[in-house]
Amino acid sequence: MGCDGGTIPKRHELVKGPKKVEKVDKNAELAAKWKHCGLSQEKLRRPIVACELGRLYNKDAIIEYLLDKSAERPNAEAVTHIRGIKDIKELNLTDNPEWEGERRNAKGDRYEDIHCGMFICPVVGLEMNGKHRFCYLQTCGCVFSERALKEVKTEICHKCGDPFKEDDVVVLNGTKEEIDKLREKMEERRAKTKTKKSKKSKAVETVSTPAESIAVAGPSGSSQDTNASTVSATKRSIQDMQGKSEVFKSLFTTHSSAKRSKDQISNWVTHTPYHF
């Protein structure tokens, strides 16, 4: 049973200790977040979108999720806050000229830099690979590095020129604390939109109530007066519409005013010229 030929086993070969927990490389994990979709785990490809929490997705993956939410997906919990297309924003990214794509190391005989990003900041030129913090604007979808927004302070987008505010800046792939803050802002924004919609619906209901209901609420004499005034107003409006329609019809040749009488119509005279 082993130990033949005078071999002396060591202690770690005889006594099995607890298994070592494999540590995940943080740099590789960050690079994966910036190069892979947060829902399908596939490589990012245009068009690329981002949610209100700053996560990156492939647009086709989000559309498939919205069409069929019951299907099983590897990371469906990360998109439960996305209710529709309005909850995502298509990003306006700047390509990295040094990015050669996957064809660069097709044979596997060359060094592949995992930190080489597909996109860069259009202002500073930093690569979007996880080493530097990047943000996007909810107004236009343009993506910049946080350093560029701090160094060149302005309320106009550096790329497209659209105006924006500080609340429109969303950090991409932020920390847990930053994601929690973004979630709070998202919930507050959605609560405000709900209150606005409820106020608009109430205003529409009050405007859509007919004048007859208002007349019934008052005394009998006042209700008759209001009914008479409404009838006269409707008659006037009908007459005005008829007058306008006659003016509009007179612009065409088929109208009676455009037709000529028999006296105004002249006979046609033909003349055949002869050339010698």
TrEMBL record:
Residues 187-238 are annotated as: Disordered. Residues 191-201 have a biased composition (Basic residues). Residues 220-238 have a biased composition (Polar residues). Pfam families: Rtf2. It comes from the Eukaryota. This is Replication termination factor 2. The lineage of its organism: Eukaryota, Metazoa, Chordata, Craniata, Vertebrata. GO terms for biological process: DNA replication termination. It comes from Nothobranchius furzeri (Turquoise killifish). GO terms for cellular component: nucleus. InterPro entries: Rtf2 (IPR006735), Rtf2_RING-finger (IPR027799). Belongs to the rtf2 family. The gene is RTF2.
